[in-house]
Specification:
The chain is α/β, with parallel strands linked by helices and about 240 residues long. Helix 8 links the parallel strand 4 and strand 5. The longest helix has 16 residues.
Length: about 240
């Protein structure tokens, strides 16, 4: 019985990643979500091209939603951000969205470990004319964050987006908090994790980590906080 339940969970997890088993609030198929998209989305053509290309990938469920990307781009413009980090670049849809929102001398430090994914995004960065803004670091994200801190770049970043392996979320958050300046924003994706954070299973380390981080941030007096029920949950932590 336990083995069967684990199999069902693995299948649901895969389907969630591929977009076939996501919670209702994640689905674009509902009339209200379609209304939101029809009346708010202003997706640049080059971003649409990259999104459609990414959807050809079997793991396209890792793609950040266009609603989230647009929200973060607007926040970047609002705070007049110049230096940003993306932890978990995937094919670069959100990195491209951030780069388009940044000034000409802006920078996105994009952390990724899969070169196939970064290569998928590069032609679109060039087409958009922002490839010089996107600094791809093809290595574990924790090493990149440590490299930035060692290079004296603490408190020099304005915005960080965390969307990589869930079991390192707390480590990513702590290092990001060192790297962002006062008033900077740390955005964290998948903080509702398909609703599993309500009652994490004993053997589900990823969900336990997200739940623990959510509770930690709620009590963290180093930040101001909003946890939004957008897509699969998006936390915005504003460094005090």
């Amino acid at each position: 019985m336990v083995s069967r339940l684990k199999t069902v969970f693995c299948i649901c997890f895969f389907l969630a990643l591929t977009g076939k088993c996501r919670p209702k609030y994640f689905s674009v198929d509902t009339p209200i979500m379609q209304y939101v998209l029809n009346n708010s989305m202003r997706e640049p053509p080059v971003l649409e091209k990259l999104r459609l290309k990414t959807l050809e990938d079997p793991w396209s469920g890792m793609l950040v939603t266009s609603v989230e990307a647009q929200l973060m781009a607007n926040l970047i413009k609002l705070i007049k951000a110049k230096n940003t980090i993306e932890i978990g670049m995937y094919t670069g849809y959100n990195a491209l969205s951030m780069a388009l929102a940044l000034p000409q001398d802006g920078r996105v430090v994009a952390c990724e470990i899969n070169e196939n994914y970064t290569n998928m995004g590069k032609p679109f960065f060039q087409e958009a004319g922002v490839d010089q803004k996107i600094d791809i670091r093809l290595q574990p994200a924790l090493k990149t964050l440590d490299d930035l801190l060692a290079a004296g770049e603490a408190e020099t970043f304005d915005f960080v987006f965390i969307d990589a392996d869930k079991q390192n979320y707390e480590n990513y958050y702590e290092k990001s908090l060192q790297l962002v300046s006062k008033g900077g924003i740390i955005a964290i994706d998948n903080v509702l994790w398909g609703g599993r954070v309500i009652a994490p299973a004993e053997d589900d380390l990823a969900t336990q980590t997200i739940d623990r981080l959510n509770k930690k941030l709620h009590k963290d007096d180093r930040i101001d906080l909003s946890l939004l029920a957008v897509a699969d949950g998006l936390t915005l932590a504003f460094k005090r």
